[in-house]
Amino acid sequence: MNELKLRLDKMNGLSDRIDAFVLFSKDMQFNPNFIYFTGSEDIAGFLFHDFSKPKIFTNTRDYPVAKKSWIKDIEIGEKDTLEKLVKGKRIGIDESTMHVDIYKKLTAAKAKLIDISQHLENARMQKTAYEINCIKEACKISGRVFSKVENDWKGMSEIAFKGLIEYEMHRQGVQPSFPTIVASGKNIAVPHHKPANQKIKLPLLIDFGVRYENYGSDVTRTTGSKWQKPIE
């Protein structure tokens, strides 16, 4: 039983309420539910699943990327493809990520829209063995990144040290899971401080994470604080 089937099986309990569900992914906009079933964040289009065979509809530009996703049934969508698929059907949607323009298209097609966002959240909450391993690996990579740079901040500015941390991430073959925070001196009291072009002085706070196979880590470290207890 592969990973995709494990995830799709979590949705089977909805089959008596809906005829299909549809999830959307727009350019440069992160949709975790779309990624959950496709394994890719680089596709603009939508996923349609009627409990038989999932299918991705995308454009000519993203077609080659879509072919590398977990879902192998890929089609280049036409202007009215979405409306034809959902017309008159009970369609599960994720209201938490739905855009108004898409909502209007679905309602214009006389689809009965049923919010399944809570079901999606519950499905993603229950991690598979594959997901747990990905999270563990993300944490391991974070540890390696920190061990490489933890003593290299001297003489650097906050923003330069941020660049060094993220450079080391790239050397490890991963991307940041969120914007890296480097805060020093009084700046550590500012939540989500944006690293500035000023020399680092103690105390120093670093908050960073990496993404591995679309699973992220989150690490916070401080050094040089008079309130920090030494590790025994």
Count every beta strand, where a strand is a DSSP E run of 2 or more residues.
12
Give the strand order of the largest sheet, numbering strands 1, 2, ... along the chain: 4-3-2-1-5-6
Q: Specify the number of helices.
A: 8
What is the general shape? elongated
- Rounded to the nearest angstrom, the distance between the terminal CA atoms is 45 Å
Q: Give me the Rg, rounded.
A: 22 Å
Q: Strand fraction band?
A: 15-25%
**From the helix content, strand content and strand pairing, which structural class follows?**
alpha/beta
**Major beta sheet summary:** 6 strands, mixed
Can you walk me through this structure?
With about 230 residues, the protein is of the alpha/beta class. Helices cover about 35% and strands about 20% of the residues. The protein has 8 helices and 12 strands. The protein has helices spanning about 5-10, 30-40, 65, 80-85, 100-110, 115-125, 130-150, 160-170, and strands spanning about 20-25, 45-50, 55-60, 75, 90-95, 110-115, 175, 180-185, 205-210, 210, 215, 220-225. It has a 6-stranded mixed β-sheet. Strands 7-10-11 form a 3-stranded antiparallel β-sheet. It has a 3-stranded antiparallel β-sheet with strand order 8-9-12, covered by helices on one side. β5 (about 90-95), α5 (about 100-110) and β6 (about 110-115) form a beta-alpha-beta unit. α7 (about 130-150) packs across α8. It is elongated.
What is the element layout, followed by pairings?
Blueprint: H1 3-9, E1 20-25, H2 32-38, E2 45-49, E3 55-58, H3 63-66, E4 74-76, H4 81-86, E5 90-93, H5 100-108, E6 112-115, H6 117-125, H7 129-149, H8 158-171, E7 175-176, E8 181-184, E9 204-208, E10 210-212, E11 215-216, E12 219-223
